[in-house]
Design brief:
Length: about 70
């Protein structure tokens, strides 16, 4: 269950969000080294870690569909 905060800007979420896989996080860390990414705050049904991102941060990262 997400903790209700964006893993990128730490803002409390009250909007549509995306849950990113670990491989996407690694790409974002390489392409945006100045970005402070908090630890994973969600898991999928199989127990894989997910990072929750708000729409504003998704747009800043140029993620598809944002």
């Amino acid at each position: 269950m997400p903790d209700g905060r964006c893993c990128f800007c730490d803002k409390i979420l009250n909007e549509q969000v995306a849950a990113l896989k670990e491989n996407v996080i690694e790409i974002l860390r390489i392409t945006n080294p100045e970005m402070n990414i908090r630890p994973s705050n969600a898991t999928d049904p199989l127990g894989n870690r997910r990072w929750v991102i708000c729409l504003e941060c998704a747009r800043k990262c140029n993620l598809p569909g944002s």
